[in-house]
Amino acid sequence: MNIFFRELKANLKSLLIWSAVLVLLIVISAAKFSAFAGDESMLAILDTMPKAMMDAFSMRAFNLTTLIGFYGLMFIFFGLMGAMAAAMWGSDIISKEERNKTVEFSLVLPVSRSQVITAKALAALVNCIVYVLITWGISLVAVTKFNPDQAFKDFLALEMQAMFVIELIFLALGLLLGCAMKQYKRSGSTAVAIILTAYFVSVFSGLQEKLDFLKYFTPFKYFDAAVMLRDGKLDGMYLLLSAAIIVVCMAAAYYTYNKRDLYI
Amino acid sequence: MRINIFRHEMNTRVRSVIIWSLSIAALAIFFFSIFPSFAEDAALSNQLLAKFPQELKDAFGLGKIDMSTILGFLTLVFVFVQLCLAIQAGNFGFGLVSIEETEKTADFLLTRPVSRFQIFTSKLLAAIGSLLITDIIVSLAIFLAITSFKGERTYDASTLLLVLLSMPIFQFFFLSVGLLISLLVKKVANVTPFSLGLAFGAYVINAFSGVFGDVKLEYLTPFKHFDPVHIVQNSSFDTRLVLVNVAVTVISLAISYWLYIRRDIHAVS
Q: Do A189 and B102 touch (CB under 8 A)?
């Protein structure tokens, strides 16, 4: 419990900075959206667009003059930000002990290594939850002047759930990297490599129908904003896949950290 | 400039440079491997696009460039290459001098009979050298990718060269801004979140101005300063924005020198 509160406090600054960036992102984009909102002429042009054209530029299902369309477009940025923040928190919360040469100290405490991971993982989890709630809250505040309806609020709720699942996947991955990497310096950069790869794969899989199978390899494609809008729920199969990834990563994290030779 | 420091810095970066160069090269080749089939699809949607009102095309940044051509496709790929280059340069910039403090080697370094100015210059040159090596490898990879997948198509070699030449200047921006920020904050415990934030921040701003067709944000982000779409369209840089970019780079570097020479660096306790 002490470790949990200690970590919460130590990570507060990082949480604040990441949140500030997100708030900035939402505020800027909402300001830009106001130039677009309810522009009837734009709507008329969009209506005349052929379907193939919309598909080609993956603008399907998004009408940018409405709040829902606008937030559909924003989802990839929320996902990216959440993934980056969560992966950084996850890997850093474990590896910083080795970097700061405090790992000896934490090991002489009367707690098992598993307990240390549990406390740290919970602290990072709280960060992730707060991060999603802040995104959600600020979004609601930022769009009040566009009179959001219930449909938008439902869609936003869905997006935030999806963002949270993405965060959880990358948090688990980050924790695993922090626990498993022999060199503490590498855990952060490996996490970046994985996020970038996942992002590029998600772009790549959208370019061509043949490459559609790649979507299983990137969490950014598990929850497609257009699909969420159409179905009104998260895809069950992908939720299961996400849960599997998270469980495997966490199990591997506990296993490796308990066996590992720590760098002192 | 001290050759010992320079050599040591280069040596510590070898691994990182190799990994970055090969990953970015792989990314470019990977993307280009789908070019032949993508080009056919793109040609089809070009026909559709031609029927569209200009207003709409402007609003969504569509149709500015023909994706079925080699250089058109390159603009698509190049933004992702830039993103990677930005993170790499940011990493080097944020870590350049802060790493001595986090790894508690600053004392040792500063007791050597070299001035801080020389230390800084040697380190900076080593970082620039590493970035240039990366740029050369990535350029070769892009060239290779184009040659192997272009088929019957042709392209303008001088425009390609221009796009590739933008890489070092683009990276120096992130190097010097990263360096400046690392000297402004009290402590850089972990380089990655900083460089990730800087690079993705610039990338997101760029993506936004693409979606909404706004012009005001373009001054802020190097992704706009070296917008490949602009370079390919006009076969030249946007001189005004490139000047802004270079000015920021030079000023950040100058302030960094000034800050580093006066910095209070704590001894290991």
A: no
Taking only the tens place, the pLDDT of each residue in B33-88 is 888 887 877 777 777 666 666 655 655 555 567 778 888 889 888 989 999 999 99
Q: Which residues of B touch A181 (CB under 8 A)?
A: none
d(C-alpha A21, C-alpha A84), whole Å:
12
Q: CB A32 to CB B208 under 8 A? A: yes
Chain A residues with CB-CB distance to B under 8 A? 14, 17, 21, 25, 28-29, 32-33, 35-36, 41-42, 45-46, 49-50, 52-53, 56-57, 59, 64, 73, 77, 80-81, 84, 88, 92, 96, 99-100, 188-189, 191-193, 196, 200, 203-204, 207-208, 210-211
Is residue A33 one of the residues assigned to a domain? yes
Number of structural domains (chain B) is 1
Query: Is residue A264, in this structure, part of any structural domain at all?
Result: no
**What string of DSSP letters covers A107-169?**
HHSSS-HHHHHHHHHHHHHHHHHHHHHHHHHHHHHHTGGG---HHHHHHHHHHHHHHHHHHHH
Tokens 């002047």 sit at which residue? A145
**Domain limits for position A113:** 2-259
Give pLDDT, residue B211: 56
Whether B196 sits inside 8 A of A29 (CB atoms) is: no
User: To the nearest whole angstrom, how far is the Cα of B207 from the nearest Cα of chain A?
Assistant: 10
Contact A28 B208 (CB under 8 A): yes
Domain that holds residue B188: 3-262
The confidence score (pLDDT) of residue A60 equals 47
Rounded to two decimals, the pTM is 0.87
pLDDT at B160: 93
Query: Does the structure's ipTM exceed the value 0.85?
Result: no
Residues whose CB falls within 8 Å of the CB of residue B109, separated by 6 or more in sequence, listed in order: B100, B119
**Identity of the residue in B34, B59, B212 whose CB atom sits nearest the CB atom of A208:** B34
pLDDT tens figures, A224-238? 887 888 888 888 899
Based on the structure, what is the number of domains in chain A? 1
Question: Is B206 part of a structural domain of the chain?
Answer: yes
Would you say residue B160 lies in a domain?
yes
Q: Establish if B269 belongs to a structural domain.
A: no
